[in-house]
């Protein structure tokens, strides 16, 4: 039925819960800064991070409707304001620290590895189209053992644009050669995954999971309401 499968990541393939709003997360991250001579409180660090993130998103919005930012660049500017000149390794480490400190739970949904493997062994092309940060997305795909199961991995922070922007789908086709003429988008969010697929005129499969927004109209080709990924069309033919 479809030759190209495009998957969302968080809430679709990966069951995840994080909380970056916890004061304790930023207090601990401020110790990481202090270890490098950049003394700052957790409250002030969070405040500066959010302000710089919003500034970078506003600048990026001049070029697309749904922009994204690179977290390392946000932390770079925060560190510079504190008198530091951080290297890329330290910035990667800082992003990983924020992610791990805010992590509550992460695991694959049932059947993910089997489904992706069966699709590829059946000659289908499998792509990831994910909003998020390249630094921790690639690490988490590696940790959960599914990095190798994609023909291309498009990440919004790297592209500078996020779902549902049609420009993100163009990035997927231009960077990884995805053929949208035979594609279906599979995701758990009507506002990003399904709206994006509709915007570029491809089929879509909505799967409702615990992190799906409630009360949002769903206008997808296929709808799965019980979270069972094994119900997506065509993977077990």
Description:
The structure is a single chain. With 237 residues, this protein is α/β, with parallel strands linked by helices. 43% of the residues lie in helices and 16% in strands. It has nine helices and eight strands. The chain has helices at 23-34, 42-60, 71-81, 88-102, 112-121, 134-143, 156-159, 166-176, 190-200; strands at 4-7, 14-18, 103-108, 125-130, 152-155, 183-187, 203-207, 222-224. The model has no long low-confidence stretch (mean pLDDT 96).
Structural class comes to alpha/beta
Output the strand order for the largest sheet: 5-4-1-6-7-8
Shape descriptor: elongated
| N-to-C series of helices and strands | EEHHHHEHEHEHHEHEE
Extract low-pLDDT stretches: none
- Backbone CA Rg: 19 Å
Oligomer: single chain
Residue-averaged pLDDT, rounded?
96
Terminus-to-terminus distance: 10 Å
**How many helices?**
9
What percent of the residues sit in helical stretches (DSSP H or I)?
A: 40-55%
Strand-helix topology:
Layout lengths: L3 E4 L6 E5 L4 H12 L7 H19 L10 H11 L6 H15 E6 L3 H10 L3 E6 L3 H10 L8 E4 H4 L6 H11 L6 E5 L2 H11 L2 E5 L14 E3 L13
Parallel strand pairs: 1-4, 1-6, 4-5, 6-7, 7-8
Antiparallel strand pairs: 2-3
